[in-house]
Amino acid sequence: MTYLLIRKAAWAIATLAVASLFVFLTMEVVPGDAAQVMLGINATDEAVAALRERLGLDLPLWQRYLSWVGGMVQGDFGTSYIYSEPVSYLVADRITVSLPLAIIALVLSTAIAIPIGVWTASRRGSMLDTVVMGITQVGIAIPNFWFALLMVYVFAIGLQWLPAGGFPGWDAGVFPALKALAMPAIALALPQAAILARVTRSALLETMGQDYIRTARAKGLSRRATLWGHALRNALIPVLTIMGLQFAYLLAGTIIIENVFYLPGLGRLVFQAITQRDIIVVESVVMMLVATNIIINFIVDLLYAVVDPRLRKAPA
Amino acid sequence: MSLTINDLHLSIGGSKILSGISLEAKPGRTLGIVGESGSGKSMTALSVMQLLPLGSHTTGSINFAEHDLLNAPDELMQDLRGDDIAMIFQEPMTALNPVHTIGDQIAEGICLHTGASKSEAHRQAAKLMADVGLPVERFPLGRFPHQLSGGQRQRVAIAMACAQSPDLLIADEPTTALDVVLQAQILDLLRARVENSGMALMLITHDLAVVADMADDLIVMREGEIVDHGPTKSVLRSLAHPYTAKLAAASTHRPALKPANVALVAAPIVQVQNITRDYSTPRQSLFQKGKPFRAVDDVSFNIRAGESLGLVGASGCGKSTLAKMILALDKPTNGSILINSTDIATADQAAMRPVRCAVQAVFQDPGSSFDPRHTVERLIAEPLHLEPKLSADERRQRVLDALAEVAMPADSLHRYPHEFSGGQRQRLALARALITRPSLIVADEPVSALDVSIRAQILDLIADLRHRLGIAWLFISHDLGVVRAICDEVMVMDAGRIVERGACNSVFDAPQSNAAKALVAATPDLARAIALAENDA
Fold first, then answer.
1. Global model pTM greater than 0.90
2. What is the distance in angstroms between the Cα of B174 and the nearest Cα belonging to chain A?
3. Preferred mutation among A215, A230, A310 to probe B, highest tally of B CBs within 10 A
């Protein structure tokens, strides 16, 4: 297990290094000069050249790459061209919105999906199963921003229980902040829950057909006991895979929901940075997301090994 | 407490599976149930367990002690299962839950039925493990199923089933997936249980030889009905029922071996010279590489044109690794393999084409060795890519010729594998091997998945192909009877080495090496059992 841990960690770091090179080079290839964008079309060539020098854009490629990576390792992500503020401050600010939002949404979707998956699997073919699976199909098909709008209409405009948008900040107190995140989290969680419930159900049904389930029944266990005691843990591998993918998506792929609710999250930061050619911000945020994805994958890999002892063995 | 089944009828989704089954399993006795696949053996067992698939409808009665099992509520069945009635299944590789330790899996039933604490149940589990020959000093309860071999897993399954000293144990093909040596050990364990604890054993198998050794009473099933029954000795003595007689004949069938129709050539087809194959094993720790495992150890032999050579040995002895190397699917670590004088380790792609044409393969499971989405024509024509490009008509003609060789109709061309029975699929597998006109076919357990009557037909076909087409065979099996029936010579393999080679009759009648002696001793002998039964009369 220790060996597995070290091996996986080494892979994660190597992947991160390759990804950083890739991100850096991609941003180099993309047309558009940061200095030019910052100064506008009317700037003189001398002014642009001076700014390029100040930003270090005239240095050779490899020097810029090394200083970028070196800075990141020390927590210095550079300074945004547009905001003239350290990228780390910008990102830290947005993370306090995006990370809690992603975690709440994932917890919600898991809390909804797993019981539904188990429940429908144990009543396969019943009326309930058919109806619930039909609902999840609809849940997958309808885009999350439509749920968001619907909720705004009902809970913010109609019942006036929750704010329609904006984020007061954590300084305003935990409760108002959570209130602001409630609807976006639900809107994000519902379609994810629908997917996860279907995956849980089908994984469970497949497991329930295995020989060892029959063995467990032959020992005298009830169907319910075999489902919880023997099938669920074996069915967890595909469920964990999907949860890992969902968390990565929830962290960065939430731009539409952030816009619907006027949330100052990571998604909007990246979107604005891209339209404004704020290369340093884009690079840093993309690198952070890559790193997050790799860390999530790493955690999911370790969870696989926790769930299934066959995956604890180091490969030959 | 005995089990009585009276006039049991079973249908699943409207189709009739069992009709008019009546039998009795008595304490301290073994009831053997034999029959070919689809005869309803397993369904009879699952009816007793009340673990039938959804959509099953049963009539008649199954009585166990004072209980009427067909009408028993779920709670009663759950009390009986694993306590008074236990069952073990065919496939030890999949019958245990991969994510729980073996200790937990044995203890689970004990806790459930006795309300014992987990630690008490583990103490009992340790004792049960020792009873089945897995002392906890060497096989800790914390092991997971994948850390045990097939035979060891089947022992765990027996320990699990016997945890509550059941009054009735149903064993559904408990040894079919195991080699003969392990089979003999597992059967001994079961026999001891019956003799010592007065348990009733219901032993289900397709292998008449196994029940002839084991069972006190015998039931022969066919297409959901009991066709023959009685004390084993009297059933075997008279072989009065034509179907039982047919089964016995097929089980001991030996094709007429005619010499291969080949011109005498000097050079052997295959020359294996001092090959070894090492596999790397998982690291001991971060700084220490695993010690390589030697699967094949310094093996040398030749196969001449038209020769039929058997290769036998316990599972894990290296048979299949050796076969893979001869098929050039794997490379030896050391040594060389010459096929028609081409060294296959050093030959380039172009030089390998004629070699691959000359050596073809047939595998055990005809169901899973075909792509289910390809037509028979495409499947059989597949090896033709090794030859210079043929026109569509020539290709089809070659496929038709190959089908004719294995006595399959020409209209098979456009059908799919699932439309054929197991025996027909194995004929198709042979056709696929024949299409390149090979001089050697490597057959890895080609008949072990087949029913005895089908097996007899396939053995006849193999003998016939050898005679007519002069094909040499390397015939890998753990079934000595089959090897004896079809091969001139046999090699016995043990722990990666060839420990004995000689004519089949001399090796099997007077084995020299320990490995060969163990194999011969463990093989149940139907002919001998029948002879003994007749002498008793």
1. no
2. 13
3. A215
